[in-house]
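Hello forum,

I keep getting stuck at the same step: I have a sequence, I want structure tokens, and every attempt I make locally crashes halfway through. Rather than fight my setup again tonight, could one of you with a working pipeline run this one for me? It's a single chain of 239 residues.
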Amino acid sequence: MLDSHVVNLIVIATVAGMAMPAGAILANIENLQPRWLEEELRHGVLALGAGALISAVALVLVPEGTRELSVPVAAICFLAGALSFMALDRYLAAHENPASQLAAMLADFIPESVALGTAAALGGNTMLIGVLITVQNLPEGFNAFREIRQTGSHSPKSLIVTFALLALLGPVMALVGFYFLADFTTLVGGIMLFAAGGILYSVFQDIAPQIKMQNSWLPPLGAILGFLIGMVGYMMSGH
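Reply #2:
Ran it on my machine without issues. Output:
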């Protein structure tokens, strides 16, 4: 028999993960009438996704990630995440691969699922983290589906099934966090900050239209450095 805490953890992680295929199903509804409603929906979901990602960074990944790390180590992990995502973004662009939104979705989902598991093991608020992950995954699934479908290389049904299978990573990684990583808080903190840097890069490079420049990957790093200054100040103030 599984412990009730483990069952609750699996349920929360699974529901949060299934928001990805739910977003894909919503994105598959095309030709909404009137035409302006489809455009409003698309831009509204993009904005929702950006806000949810930033909230995850500010409310979960950075506060939890910096708890066990020194300022230099935290800064290195954060910048490493941003630079890694920049390298991935450039690689995908060079190979005309539109999977950047999918990569961002998984890079967010996996460490937060680990955080969900470690929070359950340490008696933290798993419901709050689960709600945040769910709210993020819905627009991310929507955006990733639309982005990949533009290439015409995958059918809608195959993409939705793929997203549903990827959602199973949620309970798997939550259980890894619960059983194996709860005692390695420094490692988990580094993973969270790495993901936070990568997520912020993705938000400002791929989602925020007023910052993105065609074939330029450097401007988003200005936002990364700005956030990093705030994060270092937050840590040095004793929080």
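The first helix runs from residue 4 to 27. If your local run keeps crashing, start a new thread with the error log.
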